[in-house]
């Protein structure tokens, strides 16, 4: 005969099981999974993205001891023209003042034409760190000969008519293709494992007294970002079909613990257009050089979408990171205040105070309607 206590336990077990089954079958986007929700009820803990744990104190160094501690095998990377000098100076000065005067990481500047003496002299006055200037091989920059120029030209005309930003620009397409599949192959970058991409005319708002490059190395991260948003669909009409074709042909290259939910709301059937804004990146060069991403880029390149459409390096990098890295290897640098016009990430609360940030905390893109950060957060819910 069942005792009253055993009866109560049995009823509770049935109720919990039914709640689990029903809630799992009716899960809404952005909420915790039923399993994690149940865990929260039982343990009192709530799942959250790793960045919310903050940076361990041991990563902070004394501002009076530049480059005294460990450093990652890393460099800053600028892709710039001679005409970008004023914007480069603005960005680089902030990088030095906010971070690099303490850590003294080197710089690599890349250009499709030789840098002028004026350019070299101006940037070298801004830092005590080593600077190398590299020329991009022509075959890695110009539109390939196998591209059907008549077809590409018609596509550009159509985009101009449709008022697509940079829709008529071949140099912009060259840049997107180079950043997608060639920058990490440049001879000057071969000795490095990590990079921090910086562009002209950007702002860094906060002091950074720890080394994010070392954090990437120690925690085995492969991709770091500050802003995420939706891509302009008119620039990538066939990109996702090409991605699905690659996945079908190479299922073994897809990481089982991937971040597909960041880029697709239906298990990969369609692309939700979310991407990490790649004008800021801190990343693992070996990840791009690896088998999975190398095959992925070569496959996309042969489709010609960089020229027949206007595929950007941001969605290409983001899709690659989401498919071929573990989700917890993608990191949101919540404490790096950053602006690339017209969007900015401004750290909030204690992070704003700790970094002595000079951005307006009310001007923060993180959870605006066009931001994808909520989808990144949902990866860990």
From TrEMBL:
One of its GO terms (biological process) is protein N-linked glycosylation. Residues 40-66 are annotated as: Disordered. GO terms for cellular component: Golgi apparatus; membrane. The active site is at 281 (nucleophile). Gene3D superfamilies: Spore Coat Polysaccharide Biosynthesis Protein SpsA, Chain A. Residues 1-23 form the signal peptide. The keyword Cytoplasm does not apply. InterPro entries: Glyco_trans_15, Nucleotide-diphossugar_trans. Keywords: Signal, Transferase. It comes from the Eukaryota. GO terms for molecular function: alpha-1,2-mannosyltransferase activity. Pfam families: Glyco_transf_15 (PF01793). Belongs to the glycosyltransferase 15 family. This is Glycosyltransferase family 15 protein. It comes from Trametes coccinea (strain BRFM310) (Pycnoporus coccineus).
């Amino acid at each position: 005969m069942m005792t009253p206590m055993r009866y109560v336990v049995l009823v509770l077990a049935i109720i919990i099981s039914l709640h689990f089954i029903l809630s799992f079958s009716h899960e809404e986007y952005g909420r915790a999974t039923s399993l994690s929700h149940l865990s929260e009820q039982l343990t009192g803990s709530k799942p959250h993205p790793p960045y919310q744990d903050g940076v361990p104190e041991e990563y902070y160094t004394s501002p009076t001891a530049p480059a005294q501690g460990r450093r990652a095998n890393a460099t800053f990377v600028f892709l710039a023209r001679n005409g970008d000098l004023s914007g480069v100076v603005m960005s680089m000065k902030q990088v030095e003042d906010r971070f690099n005067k303490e850590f003294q990481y080197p710089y690599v500047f890349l250009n499709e034409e030789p840098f002028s003496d004026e350019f070299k002299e101006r940037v070298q006055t801004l830092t005590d760190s080593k600077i190398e200037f590299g020329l991009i091989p022509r075959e890695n920059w110009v539109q390939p000969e196998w591209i059907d120029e008549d077809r590409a030209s018609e596509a550009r005309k159509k985009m101009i008519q449709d008022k697509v930003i940079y829709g008529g620009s071949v140099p912009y397409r060259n840049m997107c293709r180079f950043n997608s599949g060639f920058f990490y192959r440049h001879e000057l970058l071969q000795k490095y494992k990590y990079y921090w991409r910086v562009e002209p005319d950007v702002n860094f708002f906060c002091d950074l007294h720890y080394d994010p490059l070392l954090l990437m190395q120690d925690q085995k991260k492969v991709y770091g970002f500050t802003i995420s948003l939706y891509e302009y669909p008119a620039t990538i009409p066939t990109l996702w079909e090409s991605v699905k074709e690659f996945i079908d042909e190479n299922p073994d290259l897809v990481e089982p613990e991937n971040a597909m939910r960041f880029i697709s709301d239906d298990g990969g059937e369609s692309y939700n257009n979310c991407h990490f804004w790649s004008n800021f990146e801190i990343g693992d060069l070996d990840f791009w050089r690896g088998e999975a991403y190398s095959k992925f880029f070569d496959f996309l390149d042969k489709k010609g979408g960089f020229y027949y459409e206007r595929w950007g390096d941001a969605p290409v990098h983001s899709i690659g990171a989401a498919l071929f890295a573990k989700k917890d290897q993608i990191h949101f640098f919540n404490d790096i205040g950053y602006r690339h016009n017209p969007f900015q990430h401004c750290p909030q609360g204690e992070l704003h105070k700790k970094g002595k940030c000079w951005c307006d905390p009310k001007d923060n893109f993180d959870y605006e309607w066009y931001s994808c950060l909520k989808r990144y957060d949902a990866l860990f819910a």
